[in-house]
Amino acid sequence: MPETRTRARAADQPLSVAGWATHVPGLTAADLPGSPAEPACGPDDAKDVLGRKGLLGKEPSTRLALCATHRALGLPPGKLAEPLPYAPGTAVVVASNLGNVETVSTVLDDMRSRGGNVVSPLDAPNASSNVIASSIAIRYGFTGPNLAVCSGATAGLDAVRLARLLLLAGRAERAVVVGVEPADPVARALAALRPGDPGELIAGAGCVLLGRPGAWPTDTGITVGPVVRHTSDPGPADGQPAVGELYGAAGVVRLAAAAAMLAGADADAGADGAATTVRCGDADDAWLTVDVTRAGARREAGAAA
């Protein structure tokens, strides 16, 4: 019985959000919290954030995911100059339902019409369902578990839930959680087949850095609780930004925006204890929610609260 109670307490333990970024091309921080001050670049201009090297052959969704990750890590523009000291043991979990469908469609069409020999060596790796997560891990040297989540409208918070399981089980020290969707014609056509009227798919990415307290170099005072599943619509979440249909990326983008809003309110008001609820999902895939709380002002890990 004591062991059961200990596990239950661990499952309810809040995790620290050490960093965040939203990256929806064309939007600024005034439009979507967590965005850059200037309009976020599109995938063709990802070099402005990441530098030119290493982007050849990368698909739009991978480029957007890398931009969001780079900014969440607080890195200066350009190629990583030296290894990140906290990269070992860091997991990467990516939510994307349609991230590489255009490449998969193109590769299959080419193979059917002209044979496998015509497939470009640059396109072939992009046909992997895990290409976004693996590209992030390779670029930044993250050596922890590497997962892709493609679970429909709940994918974003499903990725947060899986990252939480990895952290609480001791499988990873830290987790980089990314949600991203492209807006190419193939992705938009597939997204339009969803029941109801979800709206036209837009391209965008979000990233949050999760860990136990002290796992990352910076403590922001923002925490997230357990992810909760609902079989019926839990109702609208107050203050959730309406920027367009982000499908599988929505949960992570909304979580990153919520963290940015709470941190901004903290800086403006200097008060503790604010909270909000992030949600994603639909009638087909169910709904997920997670509570985000501001515990205090931004401080360095290990410093007095």
Automatic annotation (TrEMBL):
One Pfam short name: ketoacyl-synt
Gene3D superfamilies named in the record: 3.40.47.10
One Gene Ontology MF term: acyltransferase activity, transferring groups other than amino-acyl groups
Protein name, per record: Beta-ketoacyl synthase
Domain Beta-ketoacyl synthase-like N-terminal, residue spans: 60-182
InterPro entries hit by this protein: Ketoacyl_synth_N (IPR014030), Thiolase-like (IPR016039)
